[in-house]
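Mods, move this if it's the wrong board.
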Amino acid sequence: MMTLREFASDSKVLVAAHRGSSGTAPENTMAALREAVDAGASIVEVDIQLSSDEQVIVFHDEVLDRTTDGSGKVGAHSYEELRTVDAGAWYDARFRGEHIPLLSEALDFLGGKVNINIEIKPPRAGEDFTRRVGFVAGMIRERGLQNNTLYSSFHHESLLRLKQEFEGMNTAAIHLPGDERLPSEVVRAANADAYVCSLREVHPAAADDIRAHSIFCGAYTINTPDQLRKAMQLPIKAIVTNFPARIAELLTREYADRI
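Not the wrong board. Structure tokens:
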């Protein structure tokens, strides 16, 4: 398995599974992570939150309602409570019983199989974001996964903290809505190693800037042949998708020289 820095120096593109294989299984569950690995994704992205008892969990939203049978704010529940909600049946009955994983559970499964992208969500009101950053970095260091883990965030202060406090961490600044800075300016301000944005945000000026500064760029969310065709004409190295098996098959069939 190539490290992230080896990928960055390579000319080929990689498939990044968004919240696992979230187009074929309930997002951010162990089922989605298993399907992403089986699909041959090069990197698997997960989102993290904190429970009320400061357990680091794999979950996207601030509230439970959209992707579980629970309700209310994630941060208002202990992990013991969160563990009891069903995180799979909303997607399909065959996933009934899928639980909200701990980050440690996800890392123990993914480590050594694929590179990992941990998206650090912006802190809740009054939250000390440095604690969350410290918890996560500690888990990665304990498992020796520094070279195979990328931290991304809209909250660039979290990325700066990682770089300041922990040696050798790989970070990606996610483009903030309404931010008119060029990618190189964002990367410089966040002291980041990479840049992530939506496909539509790789406009001509951004694409020129990415090329001029040799920036490692990941773009989301690329799920269709037309979206992939557009992405392959741009300086995008990481194809972020909900359907890693589909995109991997399209890349193999139509862009074999790029993978």
